[in-house]
Amino acid sequence: MDTKTLLEWSERYHVATYLRPPICLVRGEGIRLWDSEGREYLDFTAGIAVVGLGHCHPRVTQAIREAAGTLIHTSNLFHTAPQIHLAKLLCEYSFGDRVFFANSGAEANEAAIKLARKYSRERFSSDRYEIIATRNSFHGRTLATLTATGQEKYQHGFEPLMPGFKHVPYNDLGAVERALDNRTAAVLVEPIQGEGGVIVPADDYLPGLRKLCDEAGALLILDEIQTGMGRTGKLWAYQHSGVEPDVMTLAKALANGVPIGAMIARESVARALTPGSHASTFGGTPFVTTVAIATFTTVLEEHLPENAARMGKYLADRLHRLQSKHSVIREVRGKGLLLGIELSQPAAPVVTGCREAGLLVLTAGDMVLRLAPPLIVDEAACERALTILDSVLGARPA
What we know:
Elements lengths: L2 H11 L11 E5 L2 E4 L4 E4 L2 H4 L8 H11 L12 H12 L5 E5 L2 H19 L6 E5 L8 H6 L3 H4 L9 E4 L4 H7 L4 E6 L15 H12 L2 E5 L23 E4 L10 E5 L1 H4 L15 H16 L2 H22 L3 E7 L2 E6 L4 H9 L2 E2 L1 E2 L4 E4 L7 H17 L3
Parallel strand pairs: 3-13, 5-6, 5-7, 7-8, 8-9
Antiparallel strand pairs: 1-2, 2-3, 4-10, 9-10, 11-12, 12-15, 14-15
């Protein structure tokens, strides 16, 4: 099928919720992708921080084949061994004691919101249900997670939004302290704001939130959907802060592109969810949990958080050199392999220029380029990406 026909069909048959470039990707290997015209791209999007192991990683591919030929689905009416093993792994390598499996990050955040409400209602009172979230955040597209998201552009047209959410500025402990009251069930934050512009908070922010939540009896929920699985240079971004949450949500990179979400919680909190209080038909199927086990163990065995820290520093150092060369770069920020380049001009034309030169990058808001390559990226790929970015920025008017 020729590309022109495929794109015409896409225009005709899809609900128009995406603005996509005029290419059709057909194959991937490692950190490279190819389109239907045979053009090759260096992938510094990783499917929006999803394919941490790169495309078609041999261990993931083998796990998919084995799982597809063994057992795909039973529902959660029955125990399955892969789901149990994955839950054990996640608890052993995090603060948590219990795991609930869902299909996506939004569903994991929905589970966390429901857990916070039920826990607080049972421990304190029936009117303790509010969630404090932050401005410029992103937590999902369901009605509750859309309400938690602190960006009006995503909420427009879906009003009235759900009650029970407050928004305060990110990286502002004083604002959280003022917002806390006897209705607060939880504080929900991203350790680093991804979609909001790759915003890294001050070192005392998460410890300060932990202290405020402890004093108020509120839960601290960390949305690690984009930052988890080694992306920031540690397995979980909260590990940079020296404190632990009560609840953490995961999704994107957990099964390297096969859809899964997870909510991890402390025992004392998790017990609020009892049989029948929450569920997911497809959450944690034996198929997807088998793939997630292969992904997770590969991340650990190949020391990919350490590679993310090393390559992230390498990229950031060289991006700062580009900043001295290109005045359009206002700031370089991020942690590990989640990097943001704030520009003085809209980022979209730079994304287009990079794609046309063979490099796929993301935006994070209107003025920020986001780099989130697979965690397997090496210096040679980084240099190639930097060369393309340098060329594209040099071709833009100052």
